[in-house]
Amino acid sequence: MSQGKAAGRGTAKPQDQGWAWMVLLAAVVLQGLTLGFSCCFGVFFTDLQHEFQASNSETSWFPSIMVAVLHGGGPLCSILVKRFGCRFVVMLGGLLSGLGMVSSSFCKSISQLYLTAGLITGLGSCFSFQGGLTVLGYYFVRWRTLANATASSGVSLGFTLWPLLSQYLLDEMGWRNTFLIFGGILLNCCVCGAIMRPIQLASGSVPQSAKPKEEPGSRAEEAQLSNGASPHHPTLQQHTKRAKCFQMLQKYVAFDIFCQNKGYQIYTIGVTWMMMGFALPHVYLVPYAIHNGVEERKAALLISVIGLINIFIRPLTGLLSGHRVFTGRRIYLFSLATLLCGLSNFICVISAEFSVLILYCVILSIAMSGVGALTFQVLMDVVEMDRFSSALGLFTILESITLLIGPPLTGLLVDITSDFHYVFYNSSFFLISAALFMGLSFCSLEKKAKLREPSKARLDNPSRHQHSEMSTELKAESQSPPAVEYITSI
């Protein structure tokens, strides 16, 4: 295996055509195998509770850990992608996912599942998912919105097929053998990673690694050396280490973007708060239905209904949001979809009959289609593509915290009250409040930018005036990605 950035002297591969569509197909399968996989654990919820004599809160920890690690491992994934390339990282993720589920089949306690299914499988899914997501941003420019929406339909396929397969295998051979089979299925992430060939640089471009950049540590070292300080002086070494550590954090966890870009700041806070309630129906819908007398097979079918409708709605959402009318305004579509998700939860509070739950799943899946198709596209809108990986790192770390604590805290509330309705009350509260926060905040931000424009027009020339605050925070999707990011031959 050879690593490093490809030389920037060759012929550029065409984007939005040719092999890019094979990469998109691999990304669809990857998202079904990773993001879609976590939805099936509601099928095993009751069996695992009985097997390990665990409470709702204890049982909900291992899917929460899996989903939290899947989202929160972004910075580590970014470092590995920089070092080894997307193909290697995706294949490594497939190996870890398979190993985690095979190990889970031999677990003797619920706490062991936290390590195997939660940490190991979650980390593997993170590498496969985020490696595949990152490479899409460089294979697609013109059709990036459609590509992201189409790739997210893989989640819908996962939502449709995983619960049905899980219930069938659970009935036929028990949860341990089912987990063993799942380990083999997740190894297909390695096949998807093999498809993701490295992108060649544009003709005549210069690799970033060839461009000398002054670092804070090097400037400090030069300053002290000029004053006669030894390069091995302890103070100088400590200062250099601190500078390198800060530079590493800034590169892979975008604290500087969070402080300077108000659009990114609002969006990250809103999504982080939203995730406290977004995952609750996925974890507790099946146990809620079974608790209210619905047959296990019918209860598993509820998640599949959500996924089936998502398959058709997500690409349509991508096409709609990709229209020029919504350029820079996709955040409002995202907020509307989040609001609808929150309002739909009140249907479950009204009744737990199977026909009512089917209606709930239909409405929820339509709203989820908008959230799923737009989550990362909005992030690409509010930050520059060359900082997308680091912005994604901080974004996923923060949302992973709320994904981790949301289901167990709600499970604890259910254990105390013995009332599953609190699952949907909590979910509605977090989703509705997050939707209102993001929508109103971006509306206020846009109004402030418009008020500044007349005064800037009198002071600035036209070439400077076009770089307004909103244009940097809500940039058009047509900006092409840098040609030198994540280029590795393996």
TrEMBL record:
SUPFAM superfamilies in the cross-refs: MFS general substrate transporter
Which stretches make up the Major facilitator superfamily (MFS) profile domain?
Answer: 20-451
Q: Where are the transmembrane segments?
A: 21-45, 61-81, 88-106, 112-139, 146-165, 177-196, 266-287, 299-319, 331-351, 357-379, 391-410, 422-445
Question: What cellular component terms from Gene Ontology apply here?
Answer: basolateral plasma membrane
Q: Where in the cell is it found?
A: Membrane
Q: Which intervals carry biased composition (Basic and acidic residues)?
A: 211-222, 454-476
Its membrane topology is listed as: Multi-pass membrane protein
**Looking at the record's lineage, which domain of life comes first?**
Eukaryota
Keywords of this entry: Membrane, Transmembrane, Transmembrane helix
Q: What is its main location?
A: membrane
Q: Name one Pfam family in it.
A: MFS_1
Keyword Nucleotide-binding part of the UniProt annotation? no
Recorded GO MF terms: monocarboxylic acid transmembrane transporter activity
**Where is the region Disordered?**
206-235, 454-490
Matches recorded under PANTHER family: MONOCARBOXYLATE TRANSPORTER, MONOCARBOXYLATE TRANSPORTER 6
Q: What is this protein called?
A: MOT6 protein
Q: Which organism is this protein's natural source?
A: Chloropsis cyanopogon
Q: What is the lineage of its organism?
A: Eukaryota, Metazoa, Chordata, Craniata, Vertebrata
Q: Which gene encodes it?
A: Slc16a5
